[in-house]
Design a protein that fits this description.
Layout lengths: L6 H7 L10 H8 L6 E4 L6 H7 L5 E6 L2 H6 L1 H7 L3 E5 L5 H7 L5 E7 L4 H5 L24 H7 L2 H12 L4 H14 L5 H11 L11 H12 L1 H15 E11 L2 H15 L20 E2 L10 H6 L7 E7 L9 H7 L10
Parallel strand pairs: 1-2, 1-4, 2-3, 4-5
Antiparallel strand pairs: 5-7, 6-7
Helix pairs in contact: 1-3, 9-10, 9-12, 10-11, 13-14, 13-16
C-alpha cells in the first residue's frame, strides 16, 4: 500500500490496498510518475499501481478493469481522488477507445499487469482455482461463455489444442479424451470435479505442479481470450503514448512473455541491420520504442519469499519514440491464437 504522511498521500492511498502488486517498485521506477502527468493503469485490480501513481501530486490516472468487482471496489478510491482518477469497466484491448471517450490523449505511461489477480484466484466462487470447491466459471466479466460451457460442449480436438497450446500441457490429448467420455455421464460443473478427473488420468509426479495447473490456465486463457486481448492492448498503448512515454508490461507465463518480447523486439527494430540491404528490399519502419537497460526484470528473492506467486513474473518495458504508431502485426496475432486446422487433420 502507499505509505507516508500528508493530505496528498492520504487521498491517493484511499485506505489499505488488499495486496501489493508484483514488481510494484520496479514498475514505478519504469513508469517514473511525475507531478501533473497522465497515466493509464490498464489492469486496475486492487489499485496498487494506481495508488502509487496518485501519490504524486497532480497526477491523473485512467484505470481499467474488465472485472465489475474490481471496478465496484475501486469506487471509494475514485471518490477520494477528487477527479484525478477515471475508473472504467473495460477490456484493456479497448484502452484507446476508453481514453478517447474521456477526451484523454498523449499519456505519459501505460502499465499492464497481465493475467488473473489474487482477488480472483482466492475467491472460490469465481472458479479460477482448483484448490477450492467452486463453480467451473473463470469469466473475468461474469458474462459470456464459461469454462463449464467450454469443457462440456467443445470438440475433443479443440479441447486438446487449448490444453496443449495455451497450457503447454503434455497430456493434452489424454485429458481432452477423458473429458469428452466423462461428460456424457455427468457434465463438469465444479472446479473440484475437473481437477480430480485430470489428476486421475494425468497424475503429476512427486515435486511437480498440481496435475490440473496447466489445464486450468489454458481454460482461463481461452474463456477470456487473454492472449488476443494482450496483442490488441500493446498496439493500442503504442498509439496513445506521447514521445518519451513509457510502456511497462508484467507477464506471468511464457505465452504472455513471448508476445510481449516479440512486440518490443519488432517495434524497437531489434535484430534489424540498418544498412547493407539487398536490391529492392523494403526499408523497415522507424522504431516506435527504445528498450532501455537489461530485460526482463524479475522479482528479487525476498519478494518471491514473501509472495510465491511472484516467482514467474517478468517485467519488460519500452520508451516511446516520435515515430508514427504501427498497425496490428499479424505475426503477433498468430502467437495469440490456436493454429488453424487443415481439412482432415492438422
Amino acid at each position: 500500500m502507499t505509505s507516508g504522511r500528508g493530505e496528498e498521500n492520504d487521498l491517493a492511498a484511499g485506505g489499505p490496498a488488499r495486496h501489493v502488486p508484483v514488481l510494484r517498485e520496479e514498475v514505478m521506477r519504469v513508469l517514473d510518475p511525475r507531478e501533473g502527468g497522465l497515466y493509464l493503469d490498464a489492469t486496475f485490480g486492487a489499485g496498487g499501481y494506481t495508488r502509487a501513481i496518485l501519490a504524486k501530486p497532480g497526477t491523473r490516472v485512467l484505470a481499467l478493469d474488465r472485472d465489475p468487482v474490481a471496478i465496484n471496489e475501486g469506487a471509494e478510491l475514485a471518490r477520494r481522488a477528487q477527479g484525478r482518477l477515471y475508473l472504467a469497466q473495460e477490456r484493456f484491448s479497448r484502452l484507446g477507445e476508453a481514453a478517447t471517450a474521456r477526451g484523454l490523449k498523449d499519456f505519459d505511461a501505460v502499465a499492464l499487469d497481465i493475467g488473473v489477480s489474487s482477488m480472483q484466484v482466492d475467491d472460490a466462487e469465481r472458479g479460477f482455482s482448483f484448490r477450492g470447491e467452486g463453480p467451473l466459471d473463470m469469466r473475468m466479466e461474469r458474462s459470456g461463455l464459461s469454462a463449464a460451457d467450454l469443457v462440456n460442449t467443445a470438440e475433443e480436438e479443440t479441447l486438446a489444442d487449448i490444453f496443449f497450446y495455451f497450457g503447454e500441457e503434455r497430456a493434452a490429448r489424454r485429458i481432452a479424451r477423458a473429458i469428452v467420455i466423462d461428460r456424457v455421464r455427468a457434465p463438469f460443473t465444479s472446479t473440484a470435479a475437473l481437477a480430480s478427473m485430470i489428476s486421475r488420468v494425468a497424475p503429476a509426479k512427486p515435486g511437480e505442479l498440481h496435475a490440473a495447473t496447466r489445464s486450468f490456465q489454458a481454460l482461463r486463457i481461452a474463456v477470456n481470450d487473454e492472449l488476443d486481448e494482450l496483442v490488441h492492448a500493446l498496439v493500442a498503448a503504442e498509439s496513445i503514448l506521447k514521445p518519451g512515454g513509457r510502456l511497462a508490461v508484467v507477464a506471468f507465463h511464457s505465452l504472455e512473455d513471448r508476445i510481449v518480447k516479440q512486440f518490443f523486439a519488432t517495434r524497437s527494430g531489434r535484430g534489424q541491420t540498418p544498412s547493407r540491404r539487398l536490391p529492392g528490399e523494403p526499408v523497415p519502419p522507424e522504431p516506435t520504442f527504445f528498450l532501455p537497460g537489461k530485460q526482463p526484470i524479475v522479482p528479487s528473492p525476498s519478494e518471491v519469499n514473501a509472495n510465491p506467486r511472484a516467482r514467474s513474473a517478468k517485467l519488460r518495458h519500452g520508451v516511446r519514440t516520435s515515430a508514427a504508431a504501427r498497425p496490428l502485426d499479424e505475426s503477433l496475432l498468430a502467437l495469440a491464437r490456436l493454429p488453424q486446422r487443415k481439412a482432415g487433420g492438422r
